[in-house]
Amino acid sequence: MAMNDRHHSRHDHAAVAAVFRALSDPARLTLLHCLADGEARVTDLTACVALAQSTTSAHLAVLREAGLVAARAEGRATYYRLTTRARLALLTRAEELLAEGLGVVVHDHDDDVPTHQPHRRRVEATS
Predict the structure, then answer these.
(1) Average pLDDT over every residue of 80-106
(2) In sequence order, what are the residues at sequence separation of 6 or more whose Cβ sits closer than 8 angstroms to the Cβ of residue 123?
(3) Does the predicted TM-score (pTM) go above 0.85?
């Protein structure tokens, strides 16, 4: 077996990609930060992200499917918690990368994106 084959076989890249997809939404990142202090009810998390309860629940379902949060029912309430503090370490490192200069790259690209203006073709006058 080649060295590259052995190296790649140790990693579940599909699972890692699923985690990053789950982390790719600002509302879901906010939910993870809201859960940093411990478990919380859906209604509390709804207030934390300022979204409708159905939208918050949908985001929590994505995080749950990725293994980032776990849920437990207590009566009619559902409580969510982080599955591990390592998730927060990942977010902290991403924020450190932004502070170290990656943010400049990300924000420079944002300047290139048009702000909801339709593309208009410039028509040259022919006389």
Answers:
(1) 77
(2) none
(3) no
